[in-house]
Specification:
The protein is α+β, with helices and mostly antiparallel strands. It binds a DNA duplex through helix 3 and helix 4.
DNA sequence: GGCACACACGAAC
DNA sequence: GTTCGTGTGTGCC
C-alpha cells in the first residue's frame, strides 16, 4: 500500500502563462499549466500522513522557492536552480524515474531526439513519447528539449506553443 | 492478473 | 505519405 501525503498548491502568473505547483512534505509533486488555485498557498485534501508545523513551513518555503526559481528561469536569469528542487517521485514508475534522470542531464540550450533518449534509457522512442506525455514536472524536467529526429518539435503536454517558446528562450540566452 | 488500447516516434517502403 | 514495429501506462473485466 502506497503512502499518501497531504498536498499543498500554489498558482502564479509567469511570462508564459499561469502555472500551478503541487508539493508534499517529500518535495514537488506536480506542475500544471494553468491556474488551479485561487489563494496564495492552498491546502489540498489531507489524505494521509499528518503533518506538523515544521513540515508545513518546509512545504510553504519549498513552494515559494520553486515559484521564484521557475520565474528566474522563465525570465532567462538563473537557469540551474530549478533542477535542484526536491521532487516527490514515489508515485512514478521505475521507467519514468529513469527517464527523468536522463532528461535532467540535458544541458540548458541543448536538445536531444526521442531516439537518442530512448537509447540512453534502453527503450524505444515510442515508449519515450508515451512516458514524456505523462511527465508531471514540465519545465523543471526539461522534456521540451526532446524533439523528433527529423528536427520537428514532436509534442508537449503543456502545448506545442509553450514548447516552442521555451526552446526559443534557451537558444537566445 | 490479463487483455486491449492509446500514444509527444522511427524506419522502411 | 503510409504502414508497421515498438515499449509503456491505463482502464476495464
Amino acid at each position: 500500500m502506497q503512502k499518501r501525503y497531504t498536498t499543498f498548491c500554489i498558482s502564479f502568473d509567469t511570462p508564459f502563462g499561469w502555472l500551478t505547483l503541487e508539493a508534499t512534505t517529500k518535495g514537488l509533486k506536480r506542475i500544471r499549466i494553468g491556474k488551479f488555485c485561487d489563494v496564495e498557498i492552498k491546502l489540498g485534501k489531507n489524505v494521509g500522513v499528518p503533518i506538523n508545523r515544521d513540515d508545513y513551513r518546509w512545504v510553504v518555503r519549498l513552494l515559494k522557492k520553486a515559484k521564484n526559481d521557475i520565474l528566474d528561469y522563465l525570465r532567462g536569469q538563473v537557469v540551474g536552480a530549478i533542477h535542484k528542487l526536491p521532487l516527490h517521485l514515489d508515485e512514478l514508475t521505475p521507467m519514468q524515474i529513469k527517464l527523468l534522470r536522463e532528461l535532467k542531464k540535458i544541458k540548458y540550450g541543448e536538445t536531444i531526439s526521442y531516439k537518442e533518449l530512448a537509447e540512453c534509457v534502453g527503450t524505444s522512442a515510442r515508449a519515450c513519447g508515451r512516458l514524456l506525455g505523462s511527465n508531471p514536472f514540465p519545465i523543471i524536467i526539461p522534456c521540451h528539449r526532446v524533439i523528433c529526429s527529423d528536427g520537428s518539435l514532436g509534442g508537449y503536454s503543456g502545448g506545442l506553443n509553450l514548447k516552442r517558446k521555451l526552446l526559443k528562450l534557451e537558444h537566445k540566452s
